């Protein structure tokens, strides 16, 4: 079962920033949709 969950996350497509379109390298499975440069946090 754990192997299936890991495979699911490995197969997720890379996310792109909603503002500039740059690929978000880290945590593409998270809910964020802005890269570090465009994030206002």
UniProtKB/TrEMBL annotation:
The lineage of its organism: Bacteria, Bacillati, Bacillota, Bacilli, Bacillales. Pfam families: YhfH (PF14149). InterPro entries: YhfH-like. This is YhfH family protein. It comes from Psychrobacillus lasiicapitis.
